[in-house]
Structure formats: C-alpha cells, structure tokens
C-alpha cells in the first residue's frame, strides 16, 4: 500500500531529507522515499486503514520543517510555475537592503546612523533566516543552514563587525534566491523532456464527442485523435490514417505511419490525420503511465555518490561547528591570543560549513542525466543504474529480436514420407497456441492463423519445443534436443530450423531465415568507441546461423545452442572474467530473457513499448528496437558521472581551501559566503549540462 505526496515549493534538499527521515518514523509507515527533483514523497504503508492518519502526521512534519511548502495528494495537474512576481519582490528587497548597506558603509555619518542603516539592511535581507532558525531550534533542529547563518552573523555583530554581518546576510540571501531559480529551471527543463502526459481524451459517445480525463476511458471505448493532438491511451486504429510523431516516447525524429488495424501507443502525436482508436488498455497501464512512473521513481534508486553525499551532509556540518568552537576559544585561552580575531575566524568557518553545493547538485546531475537519456528513448531506472552503465566494459546480446528483427520467413520445407503441405500443416498446428516469432512465421506460411475448434492440445517444453495432439496424431515440433530426447534421429540441418516428428517418427524439418537490424553492426562499433572492450552474443540458435550473425556485426565471441538457464550460466562465466568495478550489460527483448536481464549487472530491454516484462526485469529500457542506443546510454552515463565528480571535487576543494584560509585569518566572511552559496550556484549550472544529452 502506497501514498504519494507532492511537496510544492520544496527547494531545500537538506529539508527534504529531514522530512523523509521523520516521515519514516510515523506510525503505520514502513518506509519513506523522497525524490527531491520531482518533489514526491512516497510513503510505503502497513495497511490502508492507516493511510489517512499517516498522511496527516506527515503534513504536520512538512509544516514544521518547511511551513511554506504545499502538500498535495494527487500528482495530476500539480506542475509548479516559478512565481516571477515573488522573485521580483525578493530582488527588490535585496536591492533595498544592499542600498542601505552601501549608505552605511560609504557615506560619512555618526556611528548610530551608520549602525541603523546596517541593522536595517541586515533585518531586511535576513529576517526570514532568523525566524526559521529560532523555530528550528525550538523543535530541536539545530544544525541547518538557517542556524549557521544566524549564528555567524549575530556573532559578527557581537564583535562589532557590522558591515561584515550585513554583507554576509545579503550575499547569502542573493545566492539562495538564484539557487532556487536554477533548481526550478532545471526541474522545468526535465519536465519539458517528459511532457507526454495527455490532458484529455475525446471520447466517442452516442451524444457525440465528449472531452474527458484519460483515466475515465474504459477498455473498448472509441476515442478520436485530431491532427496535432496527443494520443491519450494505447489502442488499435479503427478508422483513419496519419503520420505519428513518436519522438517523446522513442527519441526518433522520423514520423511513423499509422493506419486501420495498427497498434498505437499513448504519448505520440498525430501529425496530419484524424484517427479513431479503440482503447486496449486503461490509462494506468498505458505506455505513458508506465514511462512517467519509471522516470518519476528513478530518483529513489540512489547511486553511491548520492548516498555518500547524504551521509556526508549529516556528519560534516556538526563537525565543522565543533571545529569552529574550538578555533574560536582554544587559541585565545591556551596561548593568550586576541579573542575577537579568533572568533571572527570561527564565524567565517561556520559560514562555509553548509554542504548545499553537494546536496543539491549531485542528485540534480543524476536526474538531469536520466531526463536527458529519456529524451533519446532510453529509460534508466535510477542513479544506481546510470552509475553502473558508466562502468560497462562488456555487453552481451541476445540474437533473435535484438540483433536481428525477429521476423522470420519460411525459406525451405524438407519433408520425409509426407508432403510439404502436410509437414507445414502439422508444424502450424503444433505451434497454434504460441506467439513466438518462429511460430507466427510457420502459421503465416501455412495460411492458417486460427486453429480454434479443431481439437488441438499442446504442451510447451521449455527451451526445446512443443508437444501437441492434432487430428489423431502426436506431433513434436522443436529443436534437435527435443527429437533426441524422444528417441528420434533428426536431420543434421544447420541454421534456424524446426524439426517435426509425427507419431514417434521423423517427418522432416522447416528452415527459417531472420534479417539483421539495420544498425546492428553500427551498434557494435559505437560500443567499442564508447569504451566497451568485449561484445558477446548468446543465442539458442544453431552454431552456423549464430556464426553468420556474429561475423556480420563484428561480435567478439558467441555462444550458440543455449537453453534459457545456460544463458544465465554463460553470463556468470563472463562476469567472473571481468575486473573489479567493471560491469556487464545484457541486452534482450525483455520477454523471454528476464532471468538473464536480472542476473547481469545491467539488464537492457529492447523495444520496451508495451512490454510489461521488459520494464519489470530490466535496469534500462530502450523504447525502440535499435541496439545502437545502448552506446548512447553509456555515453550519457559517462558524461553524467564526469559532471558528478567535477561537482564533488570542485565543491569540496573550494570549501577545504576557504576553511584553511579562514583558520589562518586570510578569508573574510564574504569569501566564506561565496564558498557556500556561490559554489552551490556554479555546481548547479554545471549539473544542468547533464540534461543536454
């Protein structure tokens, strides 16, 4: 049982973590997951009966920590617009405060007039900081940025550094304001990448066309999509034809044609024609819903850098506060040095201590990378998967449906003791209940798609084939292993073949051919260019056919005639040959490769549109059938990790440098402010580069 709360107005990552920790301790809540970038707090509840009380308690927690944050229960229509008027008012307030500050510093005047101008500048810019600090202290929340800034600036007043105190508060608030602006811009940029949620559906009724919410449309209903409109739900075209813009879903720029009888998915845009669509899935199970949920929840699966920063922030600030206290009083007491000088150094120390640059920019970098990948039709399940993808040194491909199109054609029928037509008919009957590409090809070649009412009984034998009863005969259709297991000697034919036995005697075989995907060879080249050292192919197909495909696309090594469990064993064998820290990705069609997808370091499902199995089993889902996009995903992941490392090194280096300078009395408080909010702002701007995939 889950409840999702949207925290509109939440721009403080430290506060977000406090809310999550306290929410996790509410009665009835088993776990709480916070996604700072999407402002979602997901509560895992013990039972439905505790939902209402838990939500009310969490609302109180949010009100305590962030009183200006609005808590909403439904994610629909909650997109938060940046308040330009409020932003302008804050700018005007800071400008006024800065004017009073300049007057107090530059214009010669009596002391009390100077003090009045500076105290006015201080309170005009920092009143809210002081109020929040007092409230948090009363609630036991001491080590936060409001407390640190209040303590540092009040301390500056106490040692009569009036201009310094006012300047620090003004610069701090200015940095915070532009930091919030940058975070909102990044959220808006990522939201724009995923702007695929339909606003309404044109439902066809007996009274005409009625605009309704997509979640009000039932399976079997008819909806109308006009030119320029998004398809709101998955379905089948009943009437009309159009070119579809699928870029939001697949990252493809070339439109796709849709006509009567074609399946279409939600999130695509009809460009030049009206479509009448029969709905096949409710909105909650549509492609749009699955993709949005996947992207929105991606922030909950945190990478190692994100987890490190969360732990780092919790211990770093208290340590720096203790160090500042020691710096302020130990040298004067132990060595008789001037107290005022060392207190000033300690106050500069305090200003530096807030780890905002890291706490904001690291998750923002990962979220930007995930958003950028999604714009290319590559869905990554969280920072942990993106980080693993950046370390990918080996890739193993399934063959059928991954490197090849999986659309087979019967290219030869070789009977023994029966005619070609009979062999094809019995094979089609045996495969009548299967939707496997080979089965579909055989049924299509036989010209019989529907065997219903003909008394067929069939049993699938995993990894080998099918046993069926039809027209008084026992049929076996499958690979050599199935034949040998039943004491039947099959032909030595190589390639993709289906052997058929009738009543215990070999009846012949049917050969099929499959075609390579147009970008299969390019995919291998791009992977090598992206730093992948070895590319493998694992297939249940015969050795000759596998060798032909491997040679055509440039595979380093292939393994043929593998049963599903043997693919898992081969993956484990490849994993054992990798160095520490190196990762293996396995790419399959996501339908019958779930065990291998789960066993590899990174499971990559091809053609994820409409495939529940793919989205469940894989760490990365490619929305199209282009294996070359794996290299794009690796490139994006490496770029994101580079940005993360840059921000970590930059932020920590600047802070350590300023801390050392402050300890030696070489860093004024304004420089300490830059080391806090200035570095945070620059780190956020750097993080925004991850969005541009």
SSE map:
Blueprint: E1 2-8, H1 13-24, E2 29-35, E3 40-45, H2 51-65, E4 70-72, H3 84-106, H4 111-138, H5 145-158, H6 162-193, E5 201-205, E6 208-212, E7 222-225, E8 235-239, E9 242-245, H7 247-250, E10 256-258, E11 263-264, E12 269-270, E13 275-279, H8 287-296, H9 304-335, H10 339-352, H11 356-374, E14 378-380, H12 383-390, E15 392-398, H13 399-403, E16 409-415, H14 420-430, H15 437-446, E17 457-461, E18 465-470, E19 473-478, H16 480-485, E20 496-502, E21 505-513, H17 520-529, E22 534-538, H18 543-553, E23 557-559, H19 564-576, E24 583-588, H20 594-599, E25 602-605, H21 612-617, E26 620-622, H22 629-663, H23 669-687
Parallel strand pairs: 15-22, 15-24, 22-23, 24-25, 25-26
Antiparallel strand pairs: 1-3, 1-4, 2-3, 5-6, 5-7, 7-13, 8-11, 8-13, 9-10, 9-12, 14-26, 16-21, 17-18, 18-19, 19-20, 20-21
Helix pairs in contact: 1-2, 3-4, 3-6, 4-5, 4-6, 5-6, 5-10, 6-11, 6-23, 9-10, 9-11, 10-22, 10-23, 11-22, 11-23, 12-22, 14-15, 17-22, 22-23
Main beta sheet: 7 strands, mixed
Number of domains: 5
Q: Multimeric state of these chains?
A: single chain
Share of helix among residues? 40-55%
* Average pLDDT score: 85
C-alpha Rg, in Å?
32 Å
Instruction: Tell me the β content.
Output: 15-25%
Flag low-confidence runs.
75-81
Total helical segments:
23
Tell me what the structure shows.
- With 693 residues, the chain is α+β, with helices and mostly antiparallel strands.
- The chain has five domains: 2-72, Alpha-Beta Plaits; 84-191 and 300-365 and 641-691, no CATH class; 218-281, Calcium-transporting ATPase, cytoplasmic transduction domain A (Distorted Sandwich), CATH 2.70.150; 378-405 and 516-623, HAD superfamily/HAD-like (Rossmann fold), CATH 3.40.50; 409-513, Calcium-transporting ATPase, cytoplasmic domain N, CATH 3.40.1110.
- Helix content is 49%, strand content 19%.
- Strands 14-26-25-24-15-22-23 form a seven-stranded mixed β-sheet, sandwiched between helices. Strands 6-5-7-13-8-11 form a six-stranded antiparallel β-sheet, with no helix packed on it.
- A hairpin with a 2-residue loop joins strand 18 (465-470) and strand 19 (473-478).
- The chain starts with a strand and ends in a 6-residue tail after the last helix.
